[in-house]
Amino acid sequence: RLEVSRTPVREALKRLKQEGLVEESGHSVTVVGISEDDLRDIFEVRLRVEGYVARLCAGRMTAEELAQLREVTDLQVFYTARGGAVGIRDMDSRFHELMYQFCGSHVLRDMLTMLHHKIQRFRKMSVENPRRAEQAVREHLDILAALERRDGNEAERLTVLHVRNAMNSTLSAAEKQTDRERSGG
User: Fold this and answer.
1) Which residue has the higher pLDDT, 18 or 120?
2) Which of 50-59, 139-148, 167-176 is least confident?
3) Residues 143, 159: contact at Cβ < 8 Å?
4) CB 174 within 8 A of CB 137
5) Dihedral (C-alpha) 113, 119, 124, 126: value to the nearest 10 degrees?
6) Alpha carbons 110 and 97: distance in angstroms, whole number
7) If we measure between CA atoms, which residue out of 113, 112, 114 comes closest to residue 47?
8) Complete DSSP assignment for the chain
9) Burial category of 107 from C-beta neighbours within 10 Å (exposed 0-12, middle 13-18, buried 19 and up)
10) How far apart, in Å, are the Cα atoms of 103 and each of 11, 109, 111, 141, 145?
11) Which residues pair with 30 in a beta bridge?
12) What is the mean pLDDT of residues 161-183?
């Protein structure tokens, strides 16, 4: 019906299963939902690990990598000023992806990337809030400034604060979404 061969579909489902996004039972595949408790757990892991990643980045990032991160934050400022929700979300995600990449640890990069993907739908709700989007940009700029100064302690502290703020915003957005779904709105 979709005129797609089975191999790429099978591979996509296999990857989704590896990332814990779908479950297989017999011949059917079901999307795994994320509860508020799951969301909270994911953010608790991010709180502890992303701060460490920022500390590593402060000591390991090259001038070229810092320039890439600066470009992303500049684009995030641009999209935020214009209310471009898709650009804001994409640049927010890109900022975190680059941090994961530049920390120098494949294990941390893979783990955090997987967690980031699991909560993508919820992150979208959070960054679409204009106040949160503006706050996130300021937080990213502060983190970047600490990285440029090679201040690992401050980069870690600011990243933990940023993830905590993102967690609070995301949990609030998820709660509002749940309330709307319950009320039929």
Assistant:
1) 120
2) 167-176
3) yes
4) no
5) -110
6) 10
7) 112
8) -----HHHHHHHHHHHHHTTSEEEETTEEEEPP--HHHHHHHHHHHHHHHHHHHHHHHHH--HHHHHHHHHHHHHHHHHHHHT-HHHHHHHHHHHHHHHHHHTS-HHHHHHHHHHHHHTHHHHHHHHTSHHHHHHHHHHHHHHHHHHHTT-HHHHHHHHHHHHHHHHHHHHHHHHHHHHHHHTT-
9) exposed
10) 29, 8, 13, 18, 16
11) 23
12) 83
Instruction: Provide the residue count of the chain.
Output: 185
Q: Which residue is it, tokens 């993508």?
A: 120
Distance CA 115, CA 107 (A): 12
Is the pTM for the entire model greater than 0.85? Answer: no
For the stretch 95-153, pLDDT in tens is 999 999 999 999 999 999 999 888 877 777 776 788 898 999 999 999 999 999 999 99
